[in-house]
Specification:
The chain has 393 residues and is α/β, with parallel strands linked by helices. It folds into two domains: 237 residues, Spore Coat Polysaccharide Biosynthesis Protein SpsA, Chain A (Alpha-Beta Complex); 151 residues, no CATH class. It contains 14 helices and ten strands. The protein has an eight-stranded mixed β-sheet with strand order 1-4-3-2-5-7-6-8, sandwiched between helices. A two-stranded antiparallel sheet has the order 9-10. Strand 2, helix 1 and strand 3 form a beta-alpha-beta unit.
Length: 393
């Protein structure tokens, strides 16, 4: 549970409630070298531009006196013992009183004099304003691995999955309207919090704008772990996009498996080789795995749609055109075709005195279709169960 320590504030920070325009929120974990300077610069930016606001330092369990230094410099300090970049920001957001929130790190990598530009963007109608560091990185400010590989790749994947159009998705200086935070329902405790903000804002169709800012060398020890935090970002992107994690790979696997199956049944010759039973087994495996993966993806999309309030035009159209019974009938049809093939194989086998089977291809095909039919039926029921909450309201 976060706690608050109130400290004296200058005239621009003495207003209460809705009269406060901006809350500058700074996460802090053992930043004794810089936190005082950050607070001073943030307060100066508010004062010099006549912006009614406050400076909040969300202390994340510092043991070097950072919290006390921030309070002495004039910040309102929020204590959040649960470690994590996201945890600190969530505590700071919960304590913020301003109409707008401007975020910045406590290591002097960002220029607090830029605060008025973020405020102007929000005044102009943006819901979120994000800085873009990539064209203005000062020498020594960002490791080459982050600058040329990590950040471009993760930002590119984020834009591919969620079409945000953001050039620097992990910039730590950004502004947001406080009244849109409930719509975002932010929860991530770690560094992936930065990605979550952009993803949720994109899904909510918020007005996201950006402009270039400078990025300066950090003062003090970095809390960022290149590989573990990079993986956490990538993992977060994947689990929030079931289409790319499940459905697209599932369709690719199923399509390849179907093609292999057709070529085998047709005894096709490709590059001098004939597709036979062993190839058919591989095709069957790919069809089954692909169908199962698609089913998991559809269930994941349904979970987000029914239980997390995510928008999905595809699911909207599907619900209007098809009912559970329609999908069940399709699954049962596939199942029956597979069952019929297996029964035919059994009849032929019996007619031959239960000797050599000789119909391996149809046995494999029938078993595959039978399994796929079962997968479709039970996946349809699972999606229906997930949607019970929405349909009962």
């Amino acid at each position: 549970m976060a706690s608050t320590t109130d400290t004296p504030a200058p005239a621009t920070e003495a207003l209460e409630g809705d009269a406060l325009l901006v809350s500058v929120v700074i996460p802090c974990l053992n930043e004794a070298e810089t936190i005082e300077e950050c607070v001073v610069r943030a307060r100066a930016a508010l004062r010099d531009n006549g912006i009614p606001g406050e400076v909040i330092v969300a202390d994340n369990g510092s043991t070097d006196g950072s919290a006390e230094m921030a309070a002495a410099a004039g910040a309102r300090v929020i204590h959040q013992p649960e470690r994590g970049y996201g945890s600190a920001y969530l505590a700071g957001f919960g304590a913020a009183r301003g109409k707008y929130i401007v975020m910045a790190d406590a290591d002097l990598t960002y220029d607090f004099a830029e605060i008025p530009r973020f405020v102007q963007g929000l005044d102009d109608g943006a819901d979120m304003v994000i800085g873009n560091r990539m064209a203005n990185i000062q020498p020594g400010a960002m490791p080459w691995l982050h600058r040329y590989i990590g950040n471009p790749i993760l930002t590119g994947i984020l834009n591919l999955f969620f079409r945000t159009g953001v050039s620097d998705a992990h910039c730590g200086m950004r502004g947001i309207r406080r009244d849109v935070l409930p719509r975002l329902d932010l929860r991530s405790p770690g560094m992936e919090f930065a990605s979550e903000m952009v993803i949720r804002a994109s899904k909510e169709r918020l007005d996201i704008r950006q402009f270039p800012i400078e990025y300066h060398p950090r003062v003090g020890e970095s809390k960022l772990s290149t590989w573990s935090d990079g993986w956490r970002h990538l993992r977060f992107l994947l689990v929030h996009s079931p289409t790319h994690l499940f459905i697209i790979p599932g369709f690719v696997l199923a399509a390849i498996g179907t093609l292999i199956t057709i070529l085998t049944l047709a005894e096709a010759h490709v590059l001098g080789h004939t597709f036979r039973e062993h190839t058919l087994i591989a095709g069957s495996l790919l069809m089954v795995v692909g169908t199962q993966t698609i089913g998991m993806g559809v269930c994941a999309r349904a979970y987000g749609y029914f239980l997390m309030g995510e928008r999905s035009p595809v699911l909207d159209r599907f619900r209007l055109r098809f009912k559970l019974e329609d999908v069940l009938l399709a699954g049962v049809a596939v199942l029956l075709v597979g069952l019929a093939a297996m029964v035919w194989v059994a009849v032929v086998w019996a007619d031959r005195g239960f000797g050599s089977l000789g119909e391996e291809r149809f046995a494999i095909l029938g078993s595959t279709l039978f399994i796929i039919g079962i997968q479709i039926v039970f996946s349809a029921f699972l999606v229906s169960i997930i949607g019970l909450r929405r349909t009962s309201n």
